[in-house]
Predict the 3D structure of the following.
Amino acid sequence: MPLGLMIKYGIFAVFWCYLACCRVSLLKSIEYSLVLSKRKTIAIIVKPDQTVEVRAPKRVSKKEVESFLQLKQSWVLAKLQEFSLRPETHKSIYREGESHYFLGEAHRIVDVKGENPSSDIEQPIIALRSIRGVAPEQIEKKFDRWYRKEALALFTDRHDYWREQMAHLDLPGSDVTIRKMKRRWGSCTTKGKITFNTALAKYPLSCIDAVVVHELCHLLEFSHNKRFYQFMSHVYPDWKTCDKQLQTLSWQY
Ligand SMILES: [Zn+2]
């Protein structure tokens, strides 16, 4: 799945390779930092902390950078405005009673000691054994084990379900793994190895399904071309709405 779906930054283009960096003020109210490198194009990045970074080739003059910024000024201001209105990113706390998202719902961490977990309030729970009085780092380890197990079961289930729905398309074989990823929700190799970002399990089922179908469509078409999106629209007509929701919610989970 493309980076676009998990963009937390507004990016015109992304290339890395820092060679020089300096801080510059410009355009009346917009302050930005300039990073010069071997890249070929100019890119403006508006970050969630409402700072602006311009990445440019070394040969480009400051005047050219400023003309480009001038040209994109309304986009930069709109992006800054958008970030200023967004809620704070959810910060994970690993403690009994704290909530963590799974399948789009806040689940409460509950301590259990061998017996079947129960909950006196109507909220789904994450039952972890013997966490009372334990350091948050230890609880986080237990939580991670729980989460990875549940996430793998969930993705495998959705993968199998959607393969069935797509049986008429005669998909090549595929299998599922999970991994923490920084810039993608999922990936698919030419050999059919589909990897999902572990964090995706936090999101509502409709978002997860959009990613699952996306990766399965790569078994039929490897590139993000017209044919690929025709498969997407055929199998999961609502994919655009779900992608957008995934982008928006990534700020809260
Ligand atoms: Zn893709």
User: Anything to note?
Assistant: Residues 214 and 232 are 7 Å apart (CA to CA). The radius of gyration is 22 Å. The pocket of zinc ion is lined by residues 1-2, 214, 218, 224 (CB under 6 Å).
